[in-house]
Write a structure and sequence with these properties.
The chain has about 300 residues and is an all-alpha fold. The chain has helices at about 1-30, 40-55, 65-85, 90-105, 105-120, 140-155, 160-185, 190-225, 235-245, 255-290.
Length: about 300
């Protein structure tokens, strides 16, 4: 289990650095005012942020996921690995159930983290140097929200986070398991790393597509109240207002940026995690062979614990 936690930490950090700029673009597109849109699409949003706020604008709010995703991935890997061991059999259904349970449990950290990230990403929109910053950093953001709104405030969007993460992680682990099995990702395979990258990237894409409409609502609820004005009374009110004003396409806002982010982030994370586990387990087996001179077969690369951060 310790290896699962360590692998999650390593994979999480790699994923954040690769994907955060795409996440900033996703959030800006999801919550922008449709009557006075600042951005025409994904690439225009990228260009506008760099031109108006410099390249650092793409990394606004990175402090929160850098701190949070390390713990989130550690929790996800630990819970998923334990769940698979408890379930016993390595079947597609068990992969889904173990992933879903891991996704649900990590929401305790994920929801406040994403709230701070979203607020920081929206702060100073269109300004290279914000004249007036509401929040100094992600931690200050959470502290201020807590002082003003209490525990309920820092858990804004918790229900939608659960609705996104629980099935999303289930699809995630299930897809990765099926792809690595069908591609034959074994330690002796010379093309193992490209196969792992492909399986991880496609797992991320499948996971995001399966729950993306929920993510749009989550982002809108967590951004609601910025500037002191609350627009939505709850999840269903947000869904109704969004559909009435923007139609069904509202649930695809920012999807291009999300999918562009999903492949490299999850390819990097899954490959890093799988290789880390493989080499650590190989080292453990070598130690066993040294102490007890008997043949120990290398565990297959398709382990019982194969999660990532989305």
């Amino acid at each position: 289990m310790a290896l699962d936690f360590a692998a999650g930490c390593v994979g999480g950090a790699a994923g954040v650095l690769v994907g955060h700029p795409f996440d900033t673009v996703k959030v800006r597109l999801q919550v922008q005012n449709v009557d006075k849109p600042l951005y025409r699409g994904t690439f225009h949003c990228f260009q506008s942020i760099i031109r108006q706020e410099s390249a650092l604008g793409l990394y606004k709010g990175i402090g929160s996921p850098m701190m949070g995703l390390t713990f989130i991935n550690a929790i996800v890997f630990g819970v998923q690995g334990n769940a698979m061991r408890k379930l016993g059999r390595d079947t597609p259904l068990n992969q889904f159930l173990a992933g879903a349970s891991a996704g649900a449990i990590q929401c305790v950290i994920c929801c406040p983290m994403e709230l701070a990230k979203t607020r920081m990403q929206l702060q100073g929109t269109g300004e290279k140097k914000s004249k007036r910053k509401m929040y100094k950093n992600s931690l200050d953001c959470l502290v201020r929200i807590y002082r003003k709104e209490g525990i309920r405030g820092i858990n804004r969007g918790m229900v939608t986070t659960l609705l996104r993460e629980t099935p999303g992680f289930g699809v995630y682990f299930l897809t990765y398991d099926m792809l690595t099995r069908s591609l034959g990702c074994e330690p002796e395979d010379p093309y193992m790393i490209p196969k792992l990258l492909f399986a991880g990237g496609m797992s991320g894409i499948a996971s995001w597509i399966s729950t993306y409409p929920v993510d749009v609502i989550k982002s809108r609820l967590q951004a609601d109240g910025v500037g002191g004005v609350n627009q939505y009374n709850g999840i269903m009110d947000c869904v109704r207002q969004s559909l009435k004003k923007e139609g069904w396409r509202v649930f695809t806002r920012g999807l291009t940026s999300t999918l562009l982010r999903a492949f490299p982030v999850n390819a990097t994370t899954f490959a890093t995690v799988t290789l880390f586990l493989m080499y650590m387990r190989e080292g453990e087996e070598c130690s066993i062979q040294d102490s007890e001179p008997q043949s120990v077969q290398l565990q297959p690369l398709q382990p019982q614990t194969q999660p990532t951060s989305m």
